[in-house]
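Exercise: predict the fold of this chain.
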Amino acid sequence: MTLLLTSISTPVGKLHVIAERDIVLAANLSTLKSLRESLSEEDAAKEIKSVSKIPVINTVIADYFDGDVRALNSIQVRQPGGNFSQAAWKAMKRVAPGKVISYAELAQKAGSPAAVRAAGSACAKNAIVLIVPCHRIVKTGGSLGNYAYGLSKKEWLLRHEGAL
């Protein structure tokens, strides 16, 4: 099956997305090269076709930026990673827009309360930015912590969702 690649202009920059039908496999705010490198070996071996829009996904992302901050919940995702990372990404998807949790809370929700560093690592390795909302994870005490695409983008997203 051919994968679809699109780039969407957003208030926080160009969002690049690779999907298989309606399942997002990768999304980033950086480069197409890093986007492709984040795919699983199996998906990376597939043909990737550039398109102007990916049905449903472009619409849902536009809805999010137009103010329906819960719209992204409807998008299915798949990305490579170990058991803890998978659990952490699943826990991130359950953090509601307008809310934040700490890395320690993420570790607990992922089933390993002592794995705070691994929770941070799962955020850093997240290949599906925005849809798997690693921007909703903050340091204990509420400071923003890190964000691969810059703290100004993390802050913008959290303000957009009503968390700040």
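Check your answer against the key: The mean pLDDT is 97.
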